[in-house]
Amino acid sequence: MKPLTLTRFMIEEQRRSGVLRPELRLLIETVARACKTISHSIGKGALGEVLGSLGSENVQGEVQKKLDVIANELLLEANEWGGHLAAMASEEMETIHRIPNRYPKGEYLLLFDPIDGSSNIDVGLSVGTIFSVLRAPASASGREITEEDFMQPGATQVASGYAIYGPQTLLVLTLGTGVYEFTLDREVGAWKMTDGPLKIPAGNCEFAINMARHKQWSPAITRYIDERMEGETGPCAKDYNMRWTGSMVADVHRILKRGGVFLYPADHRTPGKARLRLMYEANPMALLIEQAGGAANNGLDRILDILPTGLHERVGVVLGDKAEVETVAAYGHEAMDTV
Ligand code: P6P
């Protein structure tokens, strides 16, 4: 049987579940189309004069790569005229982007990290685009959308996904009814389903963490990693492998496909200091991971339950294999109990 295209998958999902509204289908197709264009730009590399930095910093104080801005503009332009959105938010923008008055407005809020792992671009490694879809609160109808309207826990997302620009260009998506992978068929420009519903294989002894930041780890994280470093002679009685790609999208994709666990803990010495952003990195990935049978917490508590207090709020992240993630949380709670 020929692989389903993204369009046909969503139409059939709409018929089957009855919950996929046409405006949400249009939103996902629009984001997917923008990701095709981003993939094309990234693929040009030095030939397209898209590599390198702009010499500017984004709202996070991070050096902006040319492609960070190009991808951000592509996603804004693609999504603002369709009538499916009330507003957008991005890692690259300090505050929300309201839909211009000349366009109709819809019921959805779109958040995205246009290029995740952009420091990998100039050295030819995988990067990605992460997106999250919320519903604008009913209370917002008839008034201007505010940043406060975005402050919803991740469990309220109606969809999330990522594109990964690697050996293949892939789109991984959940509409809340399972996780599906689509591969970009460049010959016809279509996204074609190549895997799904994805389920995280249990028991893969592979952890992803930036070991250089061990001084920032809590005793619980240190205990968890030390045990795995001891391997089969230690309490795990198994040897573990380590991977760290510098791109959350690439690490999450590997975990969805072959299991394991990803950790980017908050800085234990400075409460509240973390690296990954809740709204457009941790939440969309946590929804995908849970939909694939895994778990996602901040070292203690479920990420999708966190009530955000700011658009660019950062959070510790532990996600992947359910048993591994629950072990980290158990160590974290044990450590709290001994304080
Ligand atoms: P470090 C990329 O900048 C990112 O936000 C994630 O994609 C990635 O997992 C992490 O930061 C890498 O952080 O400290 O290893 O550079």
Characterization of this structure:
- This protein has helices spanning about 5-15, 20-45, 65-80, 220-230, 250-260, 280-290, 320-335; strands spanning about 55, 65, 85-90, 95-100, 110-115, 125-135, 160-165, 170-175, 180-185, 190-195, 205-210, 240, 260-265, 275, 295, 315, 315-320.
- The protein contains 7 helices and 17 strands.
- Helix 2 runs antiparallel to helix 3 (about 65-80) and helix 4 (about 220-230) crosses helix 7 (about 320-335).
- An 8-stranded mixed β-sheet has the order 4-3-5-6-7-8-9-10, sandwiched between helices.
- It is globular, with a radius of gyration of 20 Å.
- Strand 9 and strand 10 (about 190-195) form a beta hairpin.
- It is an alpha+beta fold and about 350 residues long.
- The relative contact order is 0.13.
- Bound molecules: 6-O-phosphono-alpha-D-fructofuranose (P6P).
- The site of 6-O-phosphono-alpha-D-fructofuranose has 10 residues, from loops.
- Pathway: Carbohydrate biosynthesis.
Radius of gyration: 20 Å
Which strand-content bin applies to the residues? 15-25%
- How would you write the strand order of the largest sheet? 4-3-5-6-7-8-9-10
Overall body shape: globular
Helical residue percent? 25-40%
Largest sheet, strands/sense/barrel: 8 strands, mixed
Number of strands: 17
Which blocks of ≥5 consecutive residues have pLDDT under 50?
A: none
* Bound ligands, named by name, code or SMILES: 6-O-phosphono-alpha-D-fructofuranose
Q: From the helix content, strand content and strand pairing, which structural class follows?
A: alpha+beta
User: Average pLDDT across residues?
Assistant: 94
Distance between the termini: 59 Å
SSE arrangement, N to C: HHEEHEEEEEEEEEHEHEEHEEEH
Number of helices: 7
Organism: Novosphingobium barchaimii LL02
Cofactor: Mg(2+)
Protein name: Fructose-1,6-bisphosphatase class 1
Subunit structure: Homotetramer.
